[in-house]
Design goal:
By secondary structure, the protein is mainly beta. The chain has helices at about 175, 230-245, 255, and strands at about 5-15, 20-25, 30, 40-45, 55-65, 70-75, 80, 90-95, 100-105, 110, 115-125, 130-140, 150-160, 165-170, 190-195, 210-220, 220-230. It is globular and about 50 Å long.
C-alpha cells in the first residue's frame, strides 16, 4: 500500500529580528509562514496527506540561532487513522541555541484501531527556553465514538547543554483502554512543559469547566498536566494555560480552522 513520507526543516537567524535562514520540505510535509505582528514570528507545519496511517513517516525539525524567538504549531489537529500493519511515526526535533521556542502543536486524535509512535526531542543551549504542549484526544467525540482499540507509544525529551532536564514516556494499548479507571474517566489529555529561568515561580493556572489540572514546578521547570471530559474542554483549558505562560495570543491557526 502507498505510504506517506514527509520531512520539513526550518532554521532561523537573528538579522534585525528573527528571520528565516533555511527551509527544506519534502513529500507530505510543508511549512507555512503567516504574517504576524510583533517580534515573534509564527511557523505552521502542514501534513498534506490529511492524516496518519500504518507505515507513514512525518519528520519535522527546527533550528533557532542565538537571540531568535519563534512560535511553531501545526495547521490543524493530526488524525491517526486505522493502521492494520506497522505504526505511523511522527518525529519532532529542535535545536534552540540561547533562543526562545514555543512549540504548540494542535491536538492528535486517535481513531479506532490506530497505531502511532511519536517522539519529541528538544536540545537547549545556554539560556535557551522552551514552552511545549502536547494534547491527545481518544476517539471522535462528535461521532459518539468510544475508543477501545488503539496503540500509542509517545516519548518526550528536553536537554540543556546535553543534560536531560525532562524526559517521559507514555503508552496506550487496548488493555489500557479496557480499564477506564486507569484514565480516571477522561477522554482527552494534555501536558505543558515550560523550561526557562524562573519557571518554578509561575502561579497555578485557573481550572476551566470539564478539565482537571495539576502543576509541578521546580528548578527552572514547570509541568502542567490536564485531563478533560472532551476534546473541546481540553482545548479550552490548554488555550487558557498557553496564553498565561506565553503572555501572548495563541497562534492564529488555533482559532481560524487551519487558515494561517
Amino acid at each position: 500500500m502507498q505510504r506517506a513520507k514527509g520531512r520539513a526543516h526550518a532554521a532561523f537567524a537573528l538579522k534585525g529580528g528573527t528571520r528565516l535562514a533555511d527551509l527544506r520540505q519534502q513529500g507530505s510535509a510543508k511549512v507555512l509562514l503567516p504574517r504576524v505582528a510583533g517580534d515573534r514570528p509564527e511557523l505552521v507545519f502542514l501534513n498534506t496527506s490529511g492524516g496518519l496511517t500504518g507505515g507513514d513517516l512525518l519528520e519535522l525539525s527546527l533550528d533557532l540561532a542565538p537571540g531568535t524567538k519563534l512560535s511553531a504549531t501545526t495547521q490543524t489537529a493530526e488524525r491517526a487513522y486505522q493502521s492494520p500493519g506497522p505504526a505511523a511515526q511522527v518525529c519532532f526535533r529542535a535545536r534552540v541555541q540561547a533562543a526562545s521556542l514555543h512549540w504548540l502543536p494542535q491536538e492528535t486524535i486517535l481513531f479506532q484501531d490506530s497505531h502511532l509512535t511519536r517522539s519529541t526531542e528538544i536540545d537547549l543551549s545556554g539560556e535557551a527556553e522552551v514552552l511545549l504542549c502536547e494534547s491527545l484526544v481518544l476517539g471522535r467525540h462528535a461521532m459518539g465514538e468510544t475508543l477501545t482499540r488503539a496503540r500509542l507509544t509517545d516519548s518526550r525529551m528536553i536537554r540543556r547543554d546535553g543534560v536531560p532536564v525532562w524526559a517521559e514516556g507514555q503508552m496506550l494499548s487496548p488493555e489500557t483502554l479496557s480499564r477506564p479507571v486507569l484514565l480516571g474517566g477522561a477522554t482527552a489529555f494534555g501536558v505543558l512543559a515550560l523550561v526557562a529561568r524562573g519557571a518554578e515561580d509561575i502561579p497555578r493556572p485557573p481550572q476551566t469547566e470539564g478539565a482537571r489540572l495539576e502543576l509541578s514546578a521546580w528548578d527552572g521547570r514547570a509541568l502542567i498536566r490536564i485531563a478533560a471530559s472532551s476534546g473541546f474542554a481540553l482545548r479550552r483549558q490548554m488555550a487558557a494555560v498557553i496564553t498565561q505562560l506565553s503572555g501572548r495570543a495563541l497562534p492564529r491557526v488555533w482559532a481560524s480552522g487551519g487558515t494561517p
